[in-house]
Design goal:
The structure is a homotetramer of 364-residue chains.
Chain A lengths: L3 E6 L7 H11 L3 E7 L4 H11 L2 E2 L3 H10 L6 E4 L7 H9 L3 E4 L7 H13 L4 E3 L7 H11 L6 E9 L10 H6 L2 H4 L3 H17 L5 E7 L10 E7 L5 E7 L8 E8 L2 E6 L6 E5 L4 E4 L19 H16 L12 H19 L5 E2 L3
Parallel strand pairs in A: 1-2, 1-4, 2-3, 4-5, 5-6, 7-10
Antiparallel strand pairs in A: 7-11, 8-9, 8-15, 9-10, 11-12, 12-13, 13-14
């Protein structure tokens, strides 16, 4: 099978997530990166593209049109720009009939999100959102367990995403745009809170109808939330909590999910990402590993640690299958609905926090 | 040094916490149990007392008067009855000039709490409340670290107490009164939530000024809360969360505390009670053990596991020292103020939950 | 039921293991300590006895005779002296018809061990050896799992007991006699190696027939072993290893056991003493807790940490039952056979190490 | 920088380690796979090569000559055949001046190893051995800590590699040649024991001079060792142990290393591969992560789990640098000396086991 021709918007030299997407795209051999608009600075765009041996564009609109016109043009594009720069390229490539693989969250504003949704509705091309953590094998197994009823009725859900790297007013390229309301839209809530939101939804198959939020800016002078505590209510009566923080000193990347049902509970933590703790009501906790996984989302035998990059690669491989016409795993690949749900979560949480924690409906 | 003569109210055969108090009282040899009103059922009271070789009373008021009149009467009494039966004996013994060691929470209602407070104010006898978890060595070390500024300014506090044993409508003596509003006053909130509240306050030295709560009765037909999610706000701007649940399937006794400051973080969990994880902002996490403890609250070298009973025994030993006139460690022994604070927490959380999560001031 | 009258030899002020035995004896209320020969120094013996309110003896032979003659004399005695002082008092009390509870290892020399064995054979009194770790609930459950065949045929056994406290030539009362060949008999091998040996035997129900050992004195000038590596061969073809070290820097009290069979494996570690990891060949690891224990060897519900002192107390409670005529649990209480097995292990390991690791038969 | 042109011998469809090498080679973009002799079966070789888009050869000798003659011929070759088929292709490519990246162990027999050594000595091409675990960041950091003296003098070394997958006489392509003495040379000892041996040597910088071994075939009828217990003695007086087993039921891939020095200890386990526990003699254990790593051997920030594939990719990236002329990290890349050391270990362990555990010198 020939690799799918891939383009990239953003991800010039020094970028973080662009390099991740490139490794993920080549890990399983399903994609070949051939073109890019890697930077809004034309010189830098060209230099970065040369380093990678790509056709270079200084403008993503030009790129979308030119690639669509080429016989050997890209079939899919990865968008790895800051949040406020997702919508414009996404719309351009969707209109050009080119599949879009977009980093999360969907956009910086509800308006931008709506633009993407509109373009997607009118395009024959597909839209994917890289909520990579939900592509890890033990997360997929967790979802399977819930879906088959192994937990019974779900009563309690607790999702956390704790980081400490923004506990100071440190300056870095990564920190810069993430703490700028104009470019990020939301702080901890958007950057990592949406991951926790999507993870909880992916595993439980349920979405909260109402949230009550308390957003804080713990670092003096910071114009955006760096700590978000959100209480969740589900239509079923299930209660939950979501806590996202970037000022939790000492936490490197503390994503975790706990779900308690009437029959069993499960716990998953990113820092032991290849273990899933499943505890039946009347028995010992079971430490599930990939030996128990039924998704097949890995490359090595159990006990050979895989992780973050492989999670991204799982998504790219699933996307490749879809692009090649195989939709059998499409339901586990995050897409527009996840993005819109995340945007609705951000909007409701902000509104609730502004109203001192009043319960606000999530309008997905 | 001669053992302190101790009495007990409650704790007849089949009782749980009474047996715990008796082991704790004799572990370090500071107390000798000599008298008791072990049950409201006179026959059972006598039988239980006979088994333990105690002077038996069928009424705690008689006991308070008789013991106060004897030359060799009890010097202290342990009250280990259900919550609604704390106040009457506590008042009786305080009035008789006999020190009171009372199980938590302070009482089932604010009125009962006020009665104890009134009696304590007029008595020369002391009042102690057995929040045993805060007497464990690594918790005491955690408190010392916060007090000396090792964490910097505290930004985030998260306390959890998760159990699964009431996830069904099972019947047992222990479950029975704990799910009866008249006898317990509050459910998860009172039985375990007050432990988490006291633990967070003990370690951080701070008390939230406002709470926003969502109380649930997850088991159909249960007339009392079995899950309590409470958001916390401190006068300093610190934010926090407290989650107490008795329907968290698979959780045996999951008490934990996490505190994040500007300079460091700490995490303690009851299921690894002899480890304290201290993570400075710019260095590896440190797994502190009793080798680092400075409270001396143990009997064996590090690596020889101690736990629950020893925590109770630490309290009894501290109480013995106070009764014998040594107040040097009195500040680490929970007492009336802790009890009243717990009652204020329960009241505020209930009020907030009734008002759909509105922020309510904690009137301690 | 009236407490059993208990005496003690050794355990004067400043002693470690004597205080442990006293707490264990009183924890469950089955014993009352009434007499002692607490020190070979008469003044110190008297002072220590006064502090504890005991009848004091300056000589254990006098004590054995006097107590045997009294109507209210002791029924059992705890021997908590250094290894070389076990045999003489054990023989004296056994001859006087008083039950003996002796700390491990059995003795400092094979000759002393034989004296105890001889006296025990001629006495109607019982002899118990406090291998306390095998009295912890999850260890007892491990043994039950092996006994019922849950592991299939056992192939591999690995026992470790690692400490770091003797990594220097530090001076202390505890270190002093333990590194003196005349008083200790053996170093790491005897002090902790015999614990690991007994633990492995207790759980697996099997004893190695041959050992190959490499004993070292890692601290320059130390006249006794402080590190012992022993390979084990069982009659069944099972292979094993035992590693005991007192120079494993950073290890507080690292006792552990791993057993691999044809059908399942189990792992137990003292630092997580209330968990037993059971891994069937074709399924996830199960984290067993006291909720799965079938020995009933505890005082609190699962999740309320118990440990070292409670293990000792389990032994004292079992011993009390035996003294009172109930032998139903006698097979789980270590006694003379365990002591002689430990002595045979020491002798065989020393001989093997002297012969550069030649395989030596264990002559139990 | 243009990718290095890479060939492969072995690794046809269905192979395990060949696919791993391919992912590792492309992960960081330093290699492009262009040619292969993927199977000894010509039809299968061609089919596998077609699938990967490679120039296909049915014979590795032809391949070596043809590629050496091409202007655009391969610059390096990966050898991923069973052990007994390492030497012949390695010699062929070394003679052709093509760099060799060979899977471990070096060979099935000492004679084969000597052939490789001879060819390497006469070739200008380099020889690399993929002991991938020593390329993980925390292992490299462990080595740096030892090298800078953070542990003081090393006293004790314990390496383990435990797997359970061969606990039955199950048939599979992977199991087949690994349990055939002719193709594997050694069983657990060679397949995983050499990994543990290299890991211990890499981290400590020391090699044992003598071993005493006990090799077993636990599965009835198996003609090769599946459990190897080896005691180690170092010239410095350091003692150690190495345990490799393929019948340790429930163990997926349990590689671990513990090192105890006079000043500190360290512990690393593959199942928590991104943590290194460093315990100074007088302080709490420190949980080091990539935040403390100084090797830079990773692609993502701390907290984003990397693992097995990335370890392989670290080696491929280091090899790429060396091929391109940068030897600054050559000392951390395993090569011929490691391979010969592993062979000497196997030979000495077999000889010792045949002589009932006699201490045998390791003739490296």
């Amino acid at each position: 099978m020939k690799p799918i021709r891939l383009g990239m918007v953003g991800g010039g030299s020094g970028a973080f997530i662009g390099a991740i997407h490139r490794i993920a795209a080549r890990m399983d051999g399903h994609f070949q990166l051939v073109a890019g608009a890697l930077s809004s600075d034309p010189t830098r765009a060209q230099a970065s593209a040369d380093e990678l041996g790509l056709r270079s564009y200084s403008d993503f609109n030009d790129m979308a049109q030119a690639e669509a016109a080429r016989e050997d043009g890209i079939q899919a594009v990865s968008i790895v720009t800051p949040n406020h720069m997702h919508a414009a390229p996404a719309v351009a490539f969707l209109r050009a009939g080119i599949h879009v693989i977009c980093d999360k969250p969907l956009a910086a504003t509800p308006e931008q999100a709506a633009q993407i949704a509109g373009a997607a509705a009118e395009s024959r091309a597909r839209f994917f959102l890289t909520h990579n953590y939900s592509a890890l094998p033990m997360v997929r197994e967790a979802r399977a367990l819930v879906a088959e009823g192994a937990l019974g009725d779900i009563r309690l859900v607790q999702a956390e995403y704790l980081q400490g790297w923004l506990s100071d007013d440190a300056q870095s390229k990564q920190a810069d745009w993430r703490t700028d309301p104009a470019r990020a839209g939301a702080g901890a809530l958007g950057d990592i809170g949406t991951h926790a939101w999507q993870l909880a939804g992916f595993v439980t198959g349920m979405t909260p109808s109402h949230v009550s939020a308390d957003l804080s800016s713990m670092v003096p002078g910071r114009p955006i939330d760096d700590d978000a505590r959100v209480a969740l209510r589900y239509p079923s009566g299930t209660k939950g909590g979501l806590w996202a923080s970037q000022v939790a000193v000492g936490q490197e990347n503390g994503l975790s999910l706990r779900v308690f049902g009437t029959k069993a509970a499960l716990e998953w933590r990113l820092d032991t990402s290849e273990r899933l703790v499943f505890t039946p009501k009347d028995g010992p906790a079971q430490i599930m590993t990939r030996a128990q996984d039924r998704s097949g989302s890995f490359r090595t035998p159990p006990g050979h640690p895989e992780g973050y990059l492989e999670g991204f690669a799982n998504l790219y491989s699933d996307v490749a299958a879809i692009i090649r016409g195989d939709d059998s795993n499409a339901d586990r690949v995050p897409g527009l609905a996840d993005g819109l749900s995340g945007m609705a979560f951000i909007a409701a949480a902000k509104q609730s926090s502004d109203r001192d924690g009043a319960w606000v409906e999530v309008m997905a």
